Amino acid sequence: MKKLIVSPPARADLREIWDYIAGDSLNAADTLSETFYEKFELLRATPEAGRQRSDLKSSLRSFPVGRYVIFYRVSDGAIEIVRVLHGARDVDSLFG
């Protein structure tokens, strides 16, 4: 299985999401965080599970998780989680 790398911007995204959700429910924030990491493991096992996002960047892929989207890259030895963003965000401006 490929190595998992969570980039600093993705770590910041995860923290921001957790903080926002925790404002209403610590349990919901923890559950969503666990779900993200379960999906990261799924992507390690099946890197092609997400759709190609060459419209944003040539090597980028995305995978939905509820209202959020995991953006990641696949290399020979690793899966790099690039960002984790709410689906309503303007991703074109973030990756453009």
TrEMBL record:
Domain of life: Bacteria
UniProt keyword list: Toxin-antitoxin system
Alphabetical list of Pfam families matching this protein: ParE_toxin
Stretches assigned to coiled coil: none
Family: Belongs to the RelE toxin family.
Record protein name field: Toxin
Organism: Abditibacterium utsteinense
